[in-house]
Amino acid sequence: MTREGDIAIRARGLTKRFGTLVAVDNVDLEVPARQVYGFLGPNGSGKSTTIRMLCGLLTPTEGDIDVLGLRIPEQAEQLRRRIGYMTQKFSLFEDLTVRENFEFVAAIQGVPKSRTQARIDELVERFHFTDRQKQLAGTMSGGQRQRLALACAVIHEPELLFLDEPTSAVDPESRREFWEKLFELADAGTTLLVSTHLMDEAERCHHLAIINRGVMVANGTPDELTGGLAGRTLAITAGEPRAAQRALADVPGVLGVAQVGNVLRVLLASAEGGAGHPDAARQRIEEALAKAGLQARIEPVAPDLEDVFVAATRRPAEDRPPAERAA
Amino acid sequence: MSLRRLWAIFLKELRQLRRDRITAAMIIGIPVIQLTLFGYAINTNVRGLDAGISDQSNTAASRALVMDLLATGVVAPKAVVRTPGELMDQIRQGRISVGIAIPPDFERRRAEGRESVQVLVDGSDTAVQNAVTQLLQMPLDTGPDRRVPRASTPPSGAIAVVSFYNPERRSAVNIVPGLIGVILTMTMVLFTAIAIVRERERGNMELLIATPLTSAELMIGKVLPYIGIGLVQTSLVLLLGVFLFAVPVRGSLFDVYLAAGLLIVANLALGLLISTRAQSQFQAMQMSFFVFLPSILLSGFMFPFAGMPRPIQVVAEALPLTHFLRLIRGVMLRGGSLWEMWHEVAALLAFTAVMMTLAIARFRKRLD
């Protein structure tokens, strides 16, 4: 069993190529034990591929992986007894009942026979399936399926749990409940690696790695990551937000403009990244808005993870091809 | 190999099968439909052809000849007329298919070894023509005319063909044992091929390969329920065959089931191998058909093995159905034992071993 302060997963120079496509490009990774570690990135950024390499389902093209002290993929068979893996797509059997799915996974994962029924009863209770034991898994809602998948993934009390976009198809209420279960598991000593493309989900993680196009572009705790953007985020309240957004797209030093309701969130590039002093950038924004004949109020605002993501993945305006700027 | 994991896979498969109505219906439906089709409709030996008789000789010998012809069951008397001309009229009108004309000088012609009997056949149906040809064991020339005006009967002392084991020449006797093999080939290969591919399509496979489950446990656990299903199908065909078509089971019933069991595992192993290649259920079906067609055509089920060219025979020897047909016909119709045909048993076992090894070796607990 891992202890506090241990490193559960260590990867060096992890690379996976599918033909000419580089799905994961030279990723270095250290996942501390007993924490919830998040992989944040858009769809197709290489999150699933990375997770599959870490649990030995895909062979890396290059790089070294050490998971729970085992060399992967060579010792993947030994690792399989110690990990749980919740796939992105629901992978339990839709034509089996809840209880039958539990029984199947318990047998496959080698839960001792004498303990199986008690363990299933415990999970049924904890994950609220008491009334649904005889229901076919295929007839349950998205949230219920995710709960079942999680319960089955932890039936053998794994030390390490991989969750690939666990709640992307689930309503916010179920998602909150789901995350409570994840923290319960982390408190009990499980290391969790969760991939997501949802910012509110990423915020909950103890530690976060941001992945874009196979490259890890940032990592740290959510506070460290947002703290690094202090002073670079502005909220602009304008009468015509769409027009204001167009007016700001080409202002030097502006990394991104996103409309949130009637407010525009503007992210400035770092001082070294071409924005100069934040006040100078703000000056340019005011000028651009005035030139477009737009009335606007500009206020500083606290950065969030979306800003972190944009800051880590966007180059300053002048480096970008025009097509990308309006995005 | 963990028996518990094997049992878990087996139980899961059974539970899924129980809820899969279409597959369950196919398990019963395919044998019943095939047996009915092959047993009743596809009858290569025509029986009870309507015949007209014109016996102008009307002697003891001619009457005996007519009785002999009727006794074969191939022809059944429909009309007795006076002249061959009337026979031709009746054929043209479609009232009879065969006319037997015995001339007034029948006995003298026979004594002299000349053509003594004329059989008129409605040549518009080749099956009828073949039936009569068989009846007389003599080739018949077919002219462009729909009638066959020239024919002969075997002179006394000519070669008489005696058919053992199926003297009544009923197709069902020959077809039903083979049909067990055809049905097992069709369903067993397909079911297993699909069973694993479906798991991959539905995403279950990613869950399974991330667990300590081994390839062998998965493969064997998945095919075990189908052995039972195959034996149920065998029983169904046997029962219907015996009750509907009075097919004999001359050898031991145990040998029949043992032979069926050998074919079942051979086909299941082949299905598994297909499943390791196929990307979708549709592909699995196509590949199963790729095996199924040659099995039906080359195994000796439809056409006699002996008549095939040498290279085709080599291909046929590689098909499990070929060996099974020899076994099952040997046991059911000739009353032989498996032991007497041990090399066919060995061929089936070898096929199974090779396919199973390839399937397990090809199956990777990896996604790449």
Please describe the topology of this protein.
The complex is a heterodimer of chains A (327) and B (368).
Chain A: E1 7-18, E2 21-32, E3 36-40, H1 47-54, E4 62-67, E5 70-72, H2 76-80, E6 83-86, H3 98-108, H4 113-126, H5 142-153, E7 160-164, H6 172-187, E8 191-196, H7 199-202, E9 207-212, E10 215-220, H8 222-227, E11 233-238, H9 241-248, E12 254-260, E13 263-268, H10 271-275, H11 278-291, E14 296-300, H12 305-313, H13 322-325
Helix pairs in contact in A: 3-4, 3-5
Chain B: H1 3-19, H2 21-41, E1 49-55, H3 60-71, E2 75-80, H4 84-92, E3 98-102, H5 106-112, E4 118-122, H6 126-136, E5 147-148, H7 171-202, H8 204-209, H9 215-245, H10 253-277, H11 281-298, H12 310-317, H13 320-332, H14 342-362
Parallel strand pairs in B: 1-2, 1-3
Antiparallel strand pairs in B: 3-4, 4-5
Helix pairs in contact in B: 1-9, 2-7, 2-9, 7-9, 7-10, 7-11, 7-13, 9-10, 10-13, 10-14, 13-14
The helix/strand class of chain A is: alpha/beta
- The assigned CATH architecture of the largest domain in chain A is 3-Layer(aba) Sandwich
Q: What is the name of the CATH superfamily of the largest domain in chain A?
A: P-loop containing nucleotide triphosphate hydrolases
CATH class of the largest domain in chain A: Alpha Beta
Q: Give the % helix of chain A.
A: 25-40%
Number of strands of chain A: 14
Number of domains of chain B: 2
- State the oligomer: heterodimer
N-to-C span of chain B: 24 Å
Tell me the number of strands of chain B.
5
User: Number of helical runs of chain B?
Assistant: 14
Task: Characterize the overall form of chain B.
Answer: elongated
What count of structural domains of chain A?
Answer: 2
Report the sheet-strand fraction of chain B: 5-15%
Low-confidence region ranges of chain A: 320-327
- What is the radius of gyration of chain A? 23 Å
Task: Using the alpha-carbon principal axes, give the shape of chain A.
Answer: elongated
